[in-house]
TrEMBL record:
<dbReference type="Pfam" id="PF02729">
    <property type="entry name" value="OTCace_N"/>
</dbReference>
<dbReference type="Pfam" id="PF00185">
    <property type="entry name" value="OTCace"/>
</dbReference>
<comment type="similarity">
    <text>Belongs to the aspartate/ornithine carbamoyltransferase superfamily.</text>
</comment>
<dbReference type="InterPro" id="IPR006130">
    <property type="entry name" value="Asp/Orn_carbamoylTrfase"/>
</dbReference>
<dbReference type="InterPro" id="IPR006132">
    <property type="entry name" value="Asp/Orn_carbamoyltranf_P-bd"/>
</dbReference>
<dbReference type="GO" id="GO:0004585">
    <property type="term" value="F:ornithine carbamoyltransferase activity"/>
</dbReference>
<feature type="domain" description="Aspartate/ornithine carbamoyltransferase carbamoyl-P binding">
    <location>
        <begin position="7"/>
        <end position="143"/>
    </location>
</feature>
<protein>
    <submittedName>
        <fullName>Ornithine carbamoyltransferase</fullName>
    </submittedName>
</protein>
<feature type="domain" description="Aspartate/ornithine carbamoyltransferase Asp/Orn-binding">
    <location>
        <begin position="151"/>
        <end position="306"/>
    </location>
</feature>
<dbReference type="GO" id="GO:0019240">
    <property type="term" value="P:citrulline biosynthetic process"/>
</dbReference>
<dbReference type="GO" id="GO:0016597">
    <property type="term" value="F:amino acid binding"/>
</dbReference>
<keyword id="KW-0808">Transferase</keyword>
<dbReference type="InterPro" id="IPR006131">
    <property type="entry name" value="Asp_carbamoyltransf_Asp/Orn-bd"/>
</dbReference>
<dbReference type="InterPro" id="IPR036901">
    <property type="entry name" value="Asp/Orn_carbamoylTrfase_sf"/>
</dbReference>
<dbReference type="InterPro" id="IPR002292">
    <property type="entry name" value="Orn/put_carbamltrans"/>
</dbReference>
<dbReference type="GO" id="GO:0042450">
    <property type="term" value="P:L-arginine biosynthetic process via ornithine"/>
</dbReference>
Amino acid sequence: MNRNEPRHLISLRDLSNADIDWIVRRGTEFAAATDRPDTLLAGKVLGVYFSKTSTRTRTAFTVGALRLGAEVIAYGPGDLQLNTGETVEDTARVLAGMLDGMVIRIAGDPREIRAFAAPGMPVVNAMSADEHPTQALADLTTLAALFGGIKGLRVLYVGEGNNTAAALALGLARFADTTLELRTPPGYGVPDETLAQAKHLARRSGSTVVERHDMADLPRNADVVYTTRWQTTGTSKPDPDWRRVFAPFQVNEEVMERCSGARFLHDLPAHRGEEVTAGVLDGPASIAFEQARNKLHSAMAVLEWCMVR
Ligand code: CP
């Protein structure tokens, strides 16, 4: 990469193993830090544009930027002239002349986020339809902090093969000797091309990514059970009967008993009684809310990686 070019975080596919390792390690340092490194982004202005709802990601990047000394301009879904027909390219060209970086959630076509990145302003994908890269980085930060590293971890993912699952697969596969077993409802798996890419990355790390479409013979040695909401932000399912297909893929006490000793992760927001029971989400194995807090620490690491290094 030409070091005069800004670093974008559009997809984990674009990052090297060393990049991902650096962001995760830095995230754990921010999580453990007692001091406030409030000058790293001093003098910089970050644009935060969310055209879809968000509780965690938007707050994490806003607070993270403020803690690092930046100023923040927030754009909601109705604020930019994109709504009146200005192109993404023209919008980005103008904003790049004023902002030092942008964090964007569109929950739609990832090519739109790539178009924002064109003029030379660091751009972070805060979730597109195909991938949720900053979620995976926060998840990996949580795992690294909890287990003292990621090498060798065995993760069981249960639920839709959505943008969170895709990013988790593309991220975990970079670490040595890991296993990701995806149990996704039939017809709702990780897209073929993403799964193939994750398997390719995993082979290079001596790791494994497998997907099945049933809940039989769950691995008993999982370190982590992970699920996400069944209705991903910004999406809907054409099949009116989709809940029937998803019902067997609930993470409940029985699943956790079969994976005895595993910790439970959820990217949130959760729908208790759908993808997870209240007993599991609020139970002793759950670290879902610690995971949510780590979105802040990981966002700080991502901003430093994009805007300082
Ligand atoms: N997990 C996640 O992305 O949460 P938000 O949609 O609230 O940002």
